[in-house]
Design a protein that fits this description.
423 residues; 20 strands; Porin; 2 helices
Length: 423
């Protein structure tokens, strides 16, 4: 159903408006679930019980939240991503500037502690997403010129206090996703008359289910450790395809795709009355993306691309400083490793290593209301990419514009606000 690894963008149809191209975490994964955590680069999240948003990263943290709490907020994402390169066919320059779309990522959380043993929570947010548009004049558009992923996720969570030190949590995840991918022939096509014609365009949507579990170990009043695991979510994106590569102007089809499993190990340490430090190690099972296979009614399935992505890791450390009884200051730094090697990187998803620098603050407006704000600057490592001939077949993308070589560079700004209320 697709002839290019860029179609992986469709695969991961789970991200409610993302930073697009160099998604904020690995691949097109999103970390932005709260402005509270944003201010510390999401360090120690599986062990941090700030407000109702904590359940998103570890449902066991519900037992740390008193009474009934509501958190609502949004994070604005401003990616600035550029690609410089050339099509090997005639050495035509290829340039795309700021081609990843801005986005606002909203969230909503509700928690309720019934008693000292049991708590419930509800969450709305996202874990994955992206949107890029390189334009039809981009010299590498034959391998892909546009990709989008929009998804929403709802969680129903519960937690149980096993003993004085250990709490357990779990939840049901409902993921609603839609995505699209497109590629067009460039002016370097073997048949010039095809320039600008759609080679392939696909869009589809699906709703699927997953689960998450977590645990929290309260070692003592000053130290705790949290661990959480989110399951893989299997999607079948059903929709339609069109273009020269599909020999159709509107053809029903689908593709089975899996959102990777993730895990986090986090620690929290209260050093004194003023200062705490927190750390995280995150893992994402991106190596589960080995290949893409297209399915059409009454037709043979077709292998689209050998993907060969690899698992990624994220390392974060942050600090919290209680300035006074009203104001809390936060900071953090994190490093995301890339989920793709140079040979598997694409222009529509130019995934690369990222360094996070974050600051934030929380203000206790009243006994019941608190406000949070976070700011992050992400530096994306410059990375090369090669999009090359995949087969000798006439429909190979290289025949419609030649091989492509380029280098991606860029940065991302994140600004978040959040309000928390305890009843």
């Amino acid at each position: 159903m697709k002839t290019n690894k860029s179609l992986l963008s469709l695969a991961v149809a789970c991200g409610l408006m993302s930073v697009a191209t160099t998604a904020n975490a690995a691949g097109f994964q999103l970390a932005e679930y709260s402005a509270t955590g944003l201010g510390r680069a999401y360090a120690g999240e599986a062990a941090m019980a700030d407000n109702a948003s904590s359940q998103w990263r570890n449902p066991a943290l519900l037992m740390q939240l008193e009474g009934t709490q509501v958190s609502v907020g949004a994070i604005y994402v401003d990616p600035n991503i550029d690609i410089e390169g050339a099509s090997k066919a005639g050495s035509v320059p290829a340039h795309a500037s700021d081609f990843a779309h801005d986005a606002v990522i909203p969230n909503f959380y509700l928690s309720h502690k019934y008693n000292d043993k049991f708590a419930l929570g509800f969450a709305l947010g996202t874990n994955y997403g992206m949107e890029t548009d390189l334009g039809k004049d981009f010299a590498g558009a034959n391998f892909g010129n546009e990709a989008s992923i929009i998804s929403k996720e709802a969680n129903l969570n519960a937690a149980y206090q096993l003993n004085d030190a250990i709490s357990l949590g779990g939840g049901l995840r409902v993921v609603m996703a839609e995505g699209s991918f497109g590629a067009v022939a460039t002016k370097n096509a073997l048949i010039p008359q095809l320039a600008g014609k759609t080679l392939k365009y696909m869009e589809g949507d699906d709703t699927a289910f997953g689960w998450q579990v977590g645990t929290l170990w309260q070692i003592n009043d000053a130290n705790r450790v949290g661990f959480t695991y989110k399951s893989e979510v299997d999607l079948t994106l059903e929709g339609h395809a069109k273009g020269l590569g599909f020999n159709s102007n509107h053809k029903p089809g689908s593709m089975n795709l899996a959102l990777p499993a993730t895990a986090e190990l986090a620690t929290y340490h209260q050093l004194n009355d003023k200062v705490a430090i927190h750390t995280s190690i995150n893992w994402t099972d991106w190596s589960s993306f080995k290949e893409l296979v297209a399915d059409f009614p009454n037709e043979d399935s077709s292998l689209i691309k050998e993907e060969n992505w690899k698992d990624n890791y994220r390392f974060a450390i942050g600090s919290t400083y209680q300035y006074n009884n009203k104001l809390q200051l936060r900071t953090g730094v994190a490093y995301d490793t890339s989920a793709v090697d140079e040979k598997n990187r694409t222009a529509t998803i130019p995934e690369t290593d990222r360094l996070w620098l974050s600051i934030g603050a929380g203000y206790q407006w009243s006994e019941q209301l608190s406000l949070d704000a976070g700011f992050t600057y992400i530096m994306a490592k410059d990375a090369k990419m090669h999009e090359e001939r995949e087969s000798k077949h006439i429909s190979d993308p290289a025949n419609f514009g030649g091989d492509f070589e380029g280098e991606v560079s860029g940065s991302i700004w994140l600004v978040g606000i959040q309000a928390n209320y305890t009843f």
